[in-house]
Specification:
Layout: H1 8-18, H2 23-47, H3 53-67
Helix pairs in contact: 2-3
Length: 71
């Protein structure tokens, strides 16, 4: 188990959505939901016809910038 520090504003937001769950469960669900959105976005991009490598690289760069989550 680890201790983390969050702002009061983030704490209030987590409390508001927490319900009977633990903070760890809430955070894990939020991360999983974000990963699901990432996968959907990648599938969407891959299903479109991409004209060139440069365009695909730009799409991948934009997706990476929008995710902002590191493991």
């Amino acid at each position: 188990m680890k201790t983390i520090t969050i702002s009061d504003e983030v704490y209030r937001k987590l409390v508001a959505i927490k319900g009977d769950k633990t903070f760890s469960q809430v955070i894990d669900e939020l991360i999983r939901r974000d990963v699901g959105r990432r996968a959907e976005r990648i599938i969407e991009v891959c299903s479109r016809r991409v004209e060139g490598v440069e365009e695909l690289e730009e799409i991948v760069r934009a997706i990476r910038e929008s995710f902002k989550v590191r493991y």
